[in-house]
Amino acid sequence: MARALIVVDVQNDFCEGGSLPVAGGARVAADIGELLHRWSSQEAGAPAYDVVVATKDHHIDPGDHWSLKPDFAQSWPVHCKVGTEGAGFHPNLDPQPFDEVFYKGEHQAAYSGFEGRTSSGEPLADWLRARAVSQVDVCGIATDHCVRATALDSAQEGFETRVLTALCAGVAENTTAAALTEMTSAGVELG
């Protein structure tokens, strides 16, 4: 029964100064970076994860997911375009400890990390099962969008799922509250 941490979309474009910033994104990046440092250096009291992975929005041409007049529900400003600085991990986050990175949304909208694949094409759920993972912690950006979708899919895939709410940033108070309610209703633990 291995435990995994999934760090969702902690990318420059989703933090302050990016094209689609979420308030508190840089702070969350720093806090996750601190957790990763403690985990990778095996400090006393550090979380006991067997594997740590990240997801990245990885857009090439995602169709109407990008818009010059976004509605901020189904369409968004250009963000996380492959090859741009905005698609990179935020500098407060140290990507070195990741066992794998899962890329999502090259040619379509993709909110859940479970839509992501490794650079060799392996889906997240298969990768986790191959490592005997049964428990998953989720953190990152944004609580009410990609964290929500990733946690819901994790529970749907049969993983015991917990969202680390202190290590997440949400877009809006009302949509974040609704997402938290939806996740708990689906059996996701909030921690």
TrEMBL record:
Question: From what superkingdom does this record's organism come?
Answer: Bacteria
**Which is a Pfam family this sequence falls into?**
Isochorismatase
Q: Which UniProt key words apply to this protein?
A: Hydrolase, Metal-binding, Pyridine nucleotide biosynthesis
Report the residue ranges that make up the Isochorismatase-like domain in this protein.
4-189
Q: In which pathway does it act?
A: Cofactor biosynthesis; nicotinate biosynthesis; nicotinate from nicotinamide: step 1/1
* Keyword Metal-binding recorded: yes
What EC number(s) would the UniProt record show? Answer: 3.5.1.19
Write down the PANTHER family for this protein, in alphabetical order.
LD05707P (PTHR11080:SF2), PYRAZINAMIDASE/NICOTINAMIDASE (PTHR11080)
Q: Which family does it belong to?
A: Belongs to the isochorismatase family.
This protein's name: nicotinamidase
Q: What is the lineage of its organism?
A: Bacteria, Bacillati, Actinomycetota, Actinomycetes, Propionibacteriales
